[in-house]
Amino acid sequence: MIVGVGVALAKGKAERERRAELSARRRRSASLLAGEPRAAGLRRIVVGQLDLAIELLESDRGGTDEATVHELRKLLKRVRAIVRLLRVELGAKRFARENAALRECGRRVAGARDAEVMVDTLDALLGRDPRLAGRGAVAALRAQLVREREAARAAGRDPRLRGAVVADLRALRARALGWQLRERGGDPSSLVAPGVERLYAEGRKRMRRARRRGDFESMHAWRKRVKGLRYAAETLDRGGAARKLKSGRRLHRVARRADRLGELLGEEHDLALLARTVRGHGELFAGQRKARKRLLQGIARRRKRLRGRALREGKRLYERKPQTFVRRLRKAL
């Protein structure tokens, strides 16, 4: 028995170390290098991120651990942001194909992570209002969310699912190696500038819509473009000597602001999903309508505060017109 526990602990430690190593490799390989041509560099990053994603899925615990799935989804989102950066260069047909493939791969592996987030979101909310935790209906809701998490984990262990996603990623990797990306001599930034401008313009437009409506769909749509801008800025941020340029410092600041804004919108999104879940499990609150009402009110209050903070952060990030925004960053792109 003691030997078995020791083996399990050793395996857990090895898995954490492996995941930490992959995470470090992702960060090291996720940005253009100093002096690296943009076309070659972006292809290198795409291929490298896909290689890491495939390695994660082919590992013994691939698809069964929420932290691993979270790491995998970050890899796919970064690749998707680069595909959006290169939209004009790739052309409409190729862009649509690669974007759809990445979206589908992300959707397939999302189940366990999303179920885990629901449990974490409820726990965080109960931590702010401990009086709710003692109510029977809320305890029943948490138990139901845990069961859904375990079911999602079981589905994620299906080797056929992992095999299908790996096959799609390998096919995408092969296509990426064949992308005809042109190096620009006169204005190298023109390879990515249209993509940056489009990402920024779409985010700015969706922020305005989110401010008017404040509903789940508009906030979520805005969040996706904020995330895309963050990953794009991080990819183009060469760091080091590049930040001696004013445009380089601005690009780094954009990445940090978009990251901060994305976290606010992410928490608001998770709470919105939790509210939907509460409404969808009305049977758990039979005879305890006050508990359900109090829980939904707590979610609504927190969401309102997060939306206010997100709109203030968004105003700072999206204060300029898209053309002006890109012009100020041009030397760093």
Give the helices and strands, then pairings.
Elements: H1 2-28, H2 38-58, H3 66-85, H4 87-90, H5 92-108, H6 111-128, H7 136-156, H8 159-177, H9 193-213, H10 216-236, H11 246-280, H12 289-317, H13 322-329
Helix pairs in contact: 1-2, 2-3, 2-8, 3-5, 3-10, 5-8, 6-7, 6-11, 9-10, 9-13, 10-11, 11-12
Describe the fold and architecture.
Residues 7-11 have low confidence and may be disordered. This protein has 2 domains: 37-132 and 155-177; 192-333. The longest helix is centred in the last third of the chain and has 35 residues, at 246-280. With 333 residues, the chain is an all-alpha fold. The termini are far apart. Helix 2 (38-58) packs antiparallel against helix 8. The protein contains 13 helices and no strands. The radius of gyration is 22 Å and the shape is globular.
- Strand fraction equals under 5%
Mean pLDDT: 88
Using the CA coordinates, give the radius of gyration: 22 Å
**What summary fits the major beta sheet?**
none
Task: Give the gist of this structure.
With 333 residues, the protein is an all-alpha fold.
Key structural traits:
333 residues; mainly alpha; 2 domains; 13 helices
